[in-house]
């Protein structure tokens, strides 16, 4: 079967699908991954066909640009990004597919392409998006509003997301020769038909909500592809061997232009707590020198995290899962979007200190969090328990089974 996976956003929104695609390929399928050009090397390294969504799309999603001064500007840049994706989406599908596997950011386009071409779809999301009384919508990062309030807020969040796609969907349907259909009406149609949605995160973090409809399943994380012979750089191996386990500090695709401030805070906190550190440069550009700190570039979390004492991160879905998988405690510093949700989940598990909002991060607060999670074993025990839970999950394997059921 020719499977086309579509995903867009930051690295954390795309990388998990490389591992999922590699597993589908091992199961005998022909797999392509359509995303923006930035991630072509990731796709090809996993042995997957790369298809571009960037021919008429902005190169980066809005959260990577660092220039959105307020929510209104963020909404405008997000709408421009999804409009560009819609223009490239039909081109990617036109290259051939027997099945579309759609991320949350691309599902709105895939549903309409499916209507036009008859190609079936399976949604494959990295966050819970369906309204539930169990928790408020992940994008709000807020406290529970009670079961009725949570469900109401969840429906409102979906309507707000649908509004981002209004122009792009209208343009796409016009190009496909389809009659007009508003995004929220297409979403309602998908729900009415009970279309399957696989969620690639762990039930250790989010147990399946009790009020979700049949077909909404949590299957376990999809891990980014790492070559079997991949190793850590020799300089990093030497640093790890030279002393006690260090603390990892990284903000992934977040915090552009904040590198100097974050580096100063991280180094001051590490030294105040008497700890060694590894700073991952990322989009922020973290960097520091010294015998007790090392700066690194992009590295597989699966290789590094089991060898550190704790991780400080932005609480993206992928980094959150990687830290738990390694059984190490965390200091979450959420920046935006769904990150406060995952940060809160880590803390609720007892595997993380109380989240520190990005703008409230100081060396004093970070050092205090280090004193808790590194010195007190309860955090490590909670993280280890979650790691054991996650070890029993096979997210990619469950997706392969879902594809086989559809094909059969």
Describe the structure.
The structure is a single chain. With 408 residues, this protein is α/β, with parallel strands linked by helices. The chain folds into two domains: 2-221 and 393-407, Glycogen Phosphorylase B (Rossmann fold), CATH 3.40.50.2000; 234-391, Rossmann fold (3-Layer(aba) Sandwich), CATH 3.40.50. The protein has 14 helices and twelve strands. It has helices at 11-26, 40-45, 71-94, 107-117, 146-176, 183-192, 234-241, 259-273, 301-304, 317-325, 339-349, 363-375, 377-391, 395-407, and strands at residues 2-6, 30-35, 49-52, 99-102, 121-125, 197-199, 216-218, 247-249, 277-280, 293-296, 310-313, 330-332. The strands form two sheets. It has a seven-stranded parallel sheet, sandwiched between helices. It has a five-stranded parallel sheet with strand order 10-9-8-11-12, sandwiched between helices. Strand 8 (247-249), helix 8 and strand 9 form a beta-alpha-beta unit. Helix 1 packs across helix 14. The N and C termini lie close together (11 Å). Mean pLDDT is 92; it is low at 55-60 and 62-70.
How are the secondary structure elements laid out?
Elements: E1 2-6, H1 11-26, E2 30-35, H2 40-45, E3 49-52, H3 71-94, E4 99-102, H4 107-117, E5 121-125, H5 146-176, H6 183-192, E6 197-199, E7 216-218, H7 234-241, E8 247-249, H8 259-273, E9 277-280, E10 293-296, H9 301-304, E11 310-313, H10 317-325, E12 330-332, H11 339-349, H12 363-375, H13 377-391, H14 395-407
Parallel strand pairs: 1-2, 1-4, 2-3, 4-5, 5-6, 6-7, 8-9, 8-11, 9-10, 11-12
Helix pairs in contact: 1-14, 3-5, 4-5, 8-12, 12-13
